[in-house]
Structures are given as structure tokens and as C-alpha cells.
Amino acid sequence: MKVTLTRKLAVATDICLFELAPAEGTTLPPFTAGAHIDVHVGGFVRQYSLCNSPTERNVYRIGVLREAASRGGSVAMHACVPGTTLDISEPRNHFALPAEAAHSILLAGGIGITPLMSMAAHLHETGGSFELHYCTREPQRAAFLDQLETPPFRHRAHCYFDNDPAGRRIDFAQVLARPERGKHLYVCGPAGFIDAALTAAAQAGWASGNVHREYFGAAATNPPAVGSAGNESPFQVSLASSGRVVDVPVGTSIVEALRGCGVEVPVSCEQGVCGTCLTRVLSGTPDHRDVYLTDEERAANDQMLPCCSRALTPMLVLDL
Known about the structure:
Elements: E1 2-12, E2 15-22, E3 36-41, E4 44-49, E5 60-65, H1 73-78, E6 85-88, E7 103-109, H2 113-126, E8 130-136, H3 145-148, E9 157-161, H4 172-175, E10 183-189, H5 191-204, E11 211-215, E12 235-239, E13 245-248, H6 254-260, E14 279-283, E15 286-287, H7 295-300, E16 303-304, E17 310-311, E18 315-318
Parallel strand pairs: 7-8, 7-10, 8-9, 10-11, 12-18
Antiparallel strand pairs: 1-2, 1-6, 2-5, 3-4, 3-6, 12-13, 14-16, 14-18, 15-17
């Protein structure tokens, strides 16, 4: 659907807030806290989390970091000016707040603050119990700092900066020291930040079902399956609907191999982050290299992200 960029505001070093309004005569679909949209910009499709309250029905707000190593999406987004018309998807949510949570710990690293701002607004408006912990390199790089330092978030938000003295930096073990049945953890940010938080949560005894994470980018090399050194051998994919078999050579993704045969799989990030290409596996063992599936979902081996993952068996049968 088409939206109009009505406002662009610098909220931190290299981070801008973009306000998107519906095209004339249309309305914006509702969304839930933690949702994201696909934005088509400069020939790219990128996922950005909505950072405003779900009660605001006439605007979507996204925060975008201009990355020096960007493949082009964030640079194109930062080049947009108010009045620009953009194509976006309807909101999707793979990072939702469960209604049964008695207390929520929101843990953000860098630009990972964006979906957690929407969560914090929703929890405040609905009377939910929560705390927010936000880590950045320095105050100048902390988006929405003015909001977090004033009511209603001032007494619930804790900000940490890498240039602070050691005693004032975040201690994951301390923040996550008391897991409880009704307590849920939400982590969003760079891969290294999330991995450190998840390790601390596991060491503290958090139940896996109470820990939720959303990556804002894949690691430089997506991880191979547990117990695998990474299978770089060629393999084959069979399409369940037709029985057609497609060869996947070394250096070519499943999505690319299928595309070369005229079979299109919906994709967006093509890094194993967004989940757009999630596909059921009917037979064979995937070599999971995404950062989207949980460890439990990977272990089940009944779904995979063919944009980046490969195979540990000579053949995969996919529900395509």
C-alpha cells in the first residue's frame, strides 16, 4: 500500500524518525506492539519496526539507522524527504507481547530500541508491569532518549553507555537474575548483543518459552546448524507439489536456484532475519543458518529459511 512521508526528524547520531501517513482516501491497518513493515525504497525492500503506540491509528513511525556498511537500504531511506510516496506492506508481527505476562523486561541494543518503544507504550497504556534497559555506545547515539528520561518512562527506563565507567554499564546477569513463570524477556539489537543477553538468560535459568528475541541484522556469517561445521556441498531440493527436483550448487542459495528455474519464493531481507521466506520441510535435514528460528524450532527440522540455509542431507523435500 502507498503512504506519504509527512515528517523526518533526527533523533540521534545517524538515526532519523520517519512518520508515514496513509495515502489520501485510505486508512492504515491496525498493528500490535512489536510489529514491523516492509518498506520499498531505492530498489530495496527493508523491514523496519513500528515504534509508536498501537493506539495511534493515523500514523506509522519507524526509526532508521544510517549504516556505514549498508547494502543501500538505509542510505536510500535517509535520502527521502517529506512528501515522498513510499510503498509498504501491512504490519506483521513475529515479536508479539503475550497477554499472560505478569512482568516484561525490555532489553534493547542500539537501533533495537524501536519495537521496544511500541511495547513500552502499549504496556504503559494497558497498565502492564515492565522495565526497559537500553544500551548504546554513547548518549548521542541513543534514540528517543528525551522520551525515556521523562514521564511515563522515566522510572522504568535504564540507559547504559559504552563510554560510562565500568560500574555503570549493564550487567546482564544482574538484570536477568530472577526468572519467574510470569516474567518475560524481550531482546532486540545486533547479533552479538542478543547472543550475550540470551547466554545470560540461559545461565540464570530462564525458560526458553519466556525469552523472545528479534535480530536487526544477521551476523557477518550466519551460524551453521548445531554440531555442523557448515555443509558447503551441493544438494538437491524436491518440490512437493510437482515432484520437480532442483540442483543447488555450492555458492548458490536455495532461493536463487529455484528462481533460476522459474520458481519464485517470497523473500525480503535474504539474510535469514525477517522470516518472509519461511518454508515447511517435509523430508531431509536443513543446515540452519538463519537468526530467525529459535533453537527449538531449528531442532524440529520441519521448517527453514531457504534464503540462507542449506542442507545436511543430499535431498530436501520442501512444501512448495
